[in-house]
Hints:
Distance between the termini: 39 Å
Shape: globular
Helix content: 25-40%
Oligomer: single chain
Number of strands: 21
Amino acid sequence: MRLSSTATLLVRGGTLVTPQGLLQADLLAQGERIKAIGDGLPTAHDTRVLDAEGCYVLPGVIDAHTHIQLDTGVYQTPDDWFIGTRAAACGGVTTVVDFATQFPGQTLPEAVDARLTEARPAAIDYALHVMITDLPPGREGEIADLVELGTPSAKLYTTYRPNYYADDAVILRLLKACAEHGVRPLVHCENDDLVTAQTEALVAAGETSWRHHGWSRPGLAEQEAIERVLFLADAAGAPVHIVHCSTARSVSIVAEAVDVGQPATCETCPQYLLLDRSLYEGPTPWRYILQPPLRRPQELDRLWRLVEAGLVDLITTDHCDYTMAQKVAKDDFTETPGGLPGMETLLPLMFTHGVAEGRLTVSHLVELLSANPAQVWGLWPRKGVLWPGSDADVVVYDPAPTDRIRADDLHHLAGYTPYQGMSVCGRVKATISRGAVVYHQGRFTGRRGRGQFVKREPLDGGDRLR
């Protein structure tokens, strides 16, 4: 099913998930926007009808932390923006927020421009955070350019020497500049000294096989760095977002800061809710090499309880499409690229383990996957909500079927999935991106290059979502 930009589409007979709750109603899209929601909606003679009987009709998922066509300076994923966004669309994702990396010698506008050129083949919409890696004293004014470019968020790292790492003085300086110019920082938090010492100890002991990866980056390193970054952000007057929290204590630290009035948000990922460190002792530990690593089995329930309590703002994937060949090249965690594919499985896994297992309402799931990402990252209300006037980004999700995740059924390049064989309840029946059906009944129906770059709005002060 393909729709022109002037076509109308009626999504009929489903249960819409809106900010006001569940609504039995039809949704009418005209062109790229939602025109109306209700019963007995007037339609034209050429209106296409998509049957949503027995299905949830959700706002399109926003995966706000992805790494498509990633080049770290050490490893590169072999995908491109068409391959990455096609996989996303097949899983109900209608917008990704990826990263423009500032490579040495680049200005921030140059970094954004280079990434926008790479992203042109995208099949769905995209926005960008900007990784700041080379902004010496005196150039902080470039951060103001990020607002004008529509990319008002800056990624900082407390680890990964030498390419991404920033020391505390640099982080404080950049946090102050972000606060001054209305740019929201997001920070990868791991204490680099603790990670380095633990890794060096494992190397010295000859314990570098994949099975030892879980010990190389301790949870304490993450937790300490979060405490420190929150302290620095508070001193700088900067709202801050903490990415991929892998332990319950990490989330609790953010929640404690929020309780005393600090503007802060955080995210976790499916891998930290569904997978644990025991997998490093299994037959395929290479599948689970990522940073931060998987944690102790007891962390899963603890982290889920905080998600249920509303203390986690977003669920993202941190998707990286390294191939199986890249992963298994050498049984050495220090020489294996870190990152897992996950965009296409995000919604089915979170519906299964959140909604179907009774941990989350479907409305709460939509907050985590659509509404909150849109609000945190300046896409609201264009994205993340089923409202007249918003973009017609819609997912029709059928909760009835049951299936198992198989790598052969997925659309990324990796050739594997960390969730191989896991049962899921329901499946994406259709994905609609700005009024066009880009996935329907198991078939990708979009096209290369239809995705648009979405400029984001800077937020005022980082008001808390919960």
